[in-house]
Amino acid sequence: MSLYELERDGKxxxxxxxxxxxxxxxxxxxxxxxxxNFDDHDDRRDVVNALVDAAQSDSDAITGAxxxxxxxxxxxxxxxxxxxxxxxxxEDDAADWVxxxxxxxxLDADVPELRMxxxxxxxxxxxxxxxxxxxxxxxxxxxxxxxxxxxxxxxxGDSRATTPLESVLSDPxxxxxxxxxxxxxxxxxxxxxxxxxxxxxxxxxxVRRIAVGAFGNFGNDRPVDYLIEALSDESAAVRRTAVYSLxxxxxxxxxxxxxxxxxxxxEKLSNTDDRSVVVPLVEILEESTQAAQRxxxxxxLGRVTSQEERDRVIESLVDALSDxxxxxxxxxxxxxxxxxxxxxxxxxxxxxxxxDDDVDPEVRGQAIFTLGKVGGERSRKTLDKLIDETEHDVxxxxxxxxxxxxxxxx
Length: 410
Prior knowledge:
Layout: H1 3-8, H2 12-21, H3 25-35, H4 44-54, H5 60-73, H6 77-86, H7 96-106, H8 112-123, H9 131-136, H10 143-156, H11 162-168, H12 174-187, H13 190-196, H14 205-214, H15 224-230, H16 236-252, H17 255-269, H18 274-287, H19 291-304, H20 310-320, H21 326-338, H22 345-354, H23 361-374, H24 377-389, H25 393-405
């Protein structure tokens, strides 16, 4: 049975046995990693004890995995490790500030693994007074300590960490830069976000992805050019993240700026690869739960879609016509009008909605509105007949308006 299967089946004791008895370092490391998923297991006490022992291993890989898993387990797991390694007596019900004080003392320990554990623990206590002490460890000789200190500073989110974290963005270790970038994104003030802008060109793909992902938190158009550049990144994950950030950015900027920024984005997107932009946009429209994101996405799809992804976009926009959000329905309708085209696909899909009596009248009305912009003779005849047959005032009113744009009644 594989280690994954042991974790999936909840066999904590077997993973503990492998962690303690295996001669294979990779097996022990992986067992330590998986045990971090047993936070509510009946054998939690045994899991914590085994990880505390493993955290004092001679192997850096096993030690690091064990400490990370203790961090994942939460509660008193890291506290127990600190007590075991440093001889500090921390009771379960000790106040957070008491624990934080002990952790800050341990940050100066000679053993790097103990400094790692202390840094991890401070990130879970949300004690802002710990930030200056964590910042001292940004220059720790051990990159694992630097990374964990940066991560914990980001969890606490105190702005005092911003300037020290900026210096970590040039760390020679990519893993440390990733943690610093993620921390600055979590802090999210203007200085932190500004510091992340140059990282869209970092050598490490994950650093670029983290930085680009934070750009959506800006409240202005400062990162637009950087996000457009990121749409050409060699990494598909970075390109996808850039699209999500663009939509998030449009949702965050003031309303009076959003229209101008949307136009700027559309203009710049016209020179990028269509598929790298459209596919993530469709996913946002179909999967996001944020109204502002979906509205901006629906609007943009009508203006950045080329022939390759046109069919899929039309289907998604047609589905959006049935959404509960009236503004989203309007944006979807205007984008469908933009995508009209000579192949009559939009017209055919909309006519199916218009002719279906089981569809909500408001949705049919939205489809009729769009037909007034993209329809032809077939639409004119259908709406002409519908005016006389429908029982719904909203459908009749929309049909009158649309048919006037298509040449009038026969």
